[in-house]
Design brief:
The structure is a single chain. The chain is of the alpha+beta class. It has a five-stranded mixed β-sheet, with helices on both faces. A hairpin with an 8-residue loop joins strand 4 and strand 5. It starts with 9 loop residues before the first helix and ends with a strand. The chain has four helices and five strands; from the N terminus they run ααβαββαββ.
Length: about 140
């Protein structure tokens, strides 16, 4: 699990996520969406800027793809989830790319989650490294 130095409050959510893994239904849900022991889990708050989350993922050499878990009390298991995969830095872009997500440079991770139909590519600001996000549907 990866946590932010500047957001130690994520530690409580990290423990909550770990505690939920005792629930066989939650473990089955994680398995069904494709989470394996090779995936790092990144806890991010709904209002945390996307650029902060992506910078943390890259800085900490988090697995790619990784699972971003956003605490949310209305979700069946207490988290909204999406996969994030950081691509290699590029000087040119391939012809076929995921649909771009249209958000401002100060967008939060919660705004990104809400803007995703299912998956999309977001390049924060002037970065040359794309990040592809894939929303994970909630499951009761």
């Amino acid at each position: 699990m990866t946590r932010s130095e500047e957001r130690p409050a994520t530690l409580a959510s990290t423990f909550d996520f770990a505690r939920r893994q005792r629930d066989p239904g939650f473990r089955r849900y994680l398995h069904d969406i494709g989470v394996t022991s090779q995936h790092d889990i990144v806890i991010a708050f709904d209002d945390e800027p996307v650029v902060s989350v992506v910078a943390r993922i890259i800085h900490n050499h988090t697995s790619s793809p990784c699972l971003i878990a956003i605490p949310h009390p209305d979700e069946p298991y207490g988290f909204r989830m999406m996969f994030a995969e950081a691509g290699a830095a590029r000087t040119h872009w391939p012809a076929k790319r995921p649909d771009p997500v249209q958000l401002g440079k100060d967008a939060s991770i919660g705004m990104l989650y809400s803007a995703l139909a299912s998956s999309g590519e977001f390049v924060p600001g002037e970065w040359v490294r794309p990040v592809v996000f894939k929303q994970v549907p909630a499951q009761a």
